[in-house]
Backbone:
């Protein structure tokens, strides 16, 4: 199956691009009464994070997200990647943990005697430091990788095949010790430990996911997901493109991002409502349907690139009922890109959608749909 390059609603104008074919679209936008010609090479989609160099999650250094992105100093980027590989943890999780422990300060210390960017106690450093310098980035992150690998192995039997659970248990073991995790057969019921795990996985998802798939152990929404399981919006679809930064030659910087996920069956499959929704509007230029879930927490959704628009604003669609048909429709025309569903999720009560209107990218409301769909049992198999 050819990978669908995805599309998403373009910057402020609902223009969607796909990697499958680069289309030059000219839009006339009226700004203060003056026509502004904007040439858009459609190709990646919108997101909130952009990468400076390299492809790792931890090298996120700039953003168009209102200053929410936490930078990872360049000196830490490669050591974090290496530590992640050794430990078996996602790079985003490693970066978020070091941020929380020391704020990337090599001279950080605590009242309990922990030192360095990874905050090793003297006893633990003696075991895992291998004679290195606790304040040196390379030495400290290498020791961190070995230590977290050991913790991960100790709690692995409790996680089974659940990768998300394994990440959370490893972090819990770091905070409370592996014995406490084993006794509790999960994250111990300690307020400090539970907060620690939630903080690391949450910040890993929200601030270090620029060029990567959804973070194992993390959630894109830290509030209540609501009751009941969902249905995959494209039954039989395979995951083809994730949320975050892109590197597509010829695209403007704002278009080097992807604000949703792409699923594809190869063409012509029905797109359905994952949960009960009310249609809040449509975007004819890219055959997008915007909707808001009826139950709490009230996520807002976008379903894009459908063959045609067959629903209307205000229409209520029950879970599992068809919204449209998978296609490659972009920029007002069939694009020739592989047929796929581009699916976006927006925060409840955020942006224009909170008033029944339609959200647009770059309004700070987008969320990574992958971990949400996974938690609700509606992810591609």
Residues:
């Amino acid at each position: 199956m050819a990978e669908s390059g995805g599309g998403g609603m373009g910057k402020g104008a609902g223009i969607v691009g796909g990697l499958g074919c680069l289309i030059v679209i000219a839009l006339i936008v009226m700004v203060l009464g003056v026509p502004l010609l904007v040439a858009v090479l459609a190709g990646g989609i919108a997101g909130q994070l952009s990468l400076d160099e390299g492809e790792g999650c931890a090298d996120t250094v700039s953003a168009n997200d209102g200053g929410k992105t936490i930078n990872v100093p360049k000196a830490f980027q490669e050591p974090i990647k290496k530590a992640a590989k050794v430990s078996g943890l996602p790079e985003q999780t490693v970066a978020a943990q070091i941020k929380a422990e020391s704020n990337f300060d090599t001279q950080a210390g605590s009242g309990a005697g922990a030192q360095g960017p990874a905050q090793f106690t003297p006893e633990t450093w003696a075991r895992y430091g291998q004679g290195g310098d606790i304040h040196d980035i390379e030495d400290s992150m290498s020791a961190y990788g070995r230590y977290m690998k050991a913790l991960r192995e100790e709690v692995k039997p409790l996680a089974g095949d659940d990768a998300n659970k394994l990440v959370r248990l490893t972090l819990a073991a770091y905070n409370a010790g592996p014995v406490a995790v084993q006794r509790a057969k999960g994250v111990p019921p300690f307020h400090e430990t539970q907060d620690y795990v939630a903080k690391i996985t949450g910040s890993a998802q929200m601030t270090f996911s620029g060029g990567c798939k959804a973070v194992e152990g993390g959630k894109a929404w830290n509030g209540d997901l609501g009751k009941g399981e969902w249905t995959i919006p494209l039954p039989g679809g395979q995951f083809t493109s994730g949320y975050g930064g892109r590197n597509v030659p010829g695209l403007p910087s704002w278009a080097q991002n992807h604000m949703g996920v792409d699923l594809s069956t190869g063409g012509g499959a029905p797109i359905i409502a994952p949960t009960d929704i009310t249609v809040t509007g449509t975007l004819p230029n890219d055959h997008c349907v915007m909707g808001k879930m009826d139950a709490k927490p009230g996520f807002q959704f976008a379903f894009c690139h459908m063959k045609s628009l067959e629903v209307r604003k205000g229409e209520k669609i029950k879970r599992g009922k068809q919204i449209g048909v998978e296609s490659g429709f972009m920029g007002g025309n069939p694009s020739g890109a592989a047929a796929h569903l581009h699916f976006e999720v927006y925060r409840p009560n955020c942006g224009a959608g909170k008033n029944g209107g339609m959200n647009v990218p770059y309004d700070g409301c987008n969320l990574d749909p992958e971990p949400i769909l996974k938690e609700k049992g509606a992810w591609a198999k």
Summary: Confidence is low (pLDDT under 50) at residues 1-70, 209-213. The chain has eight helices and 18 strands. The radius of gyration is 22 Å.
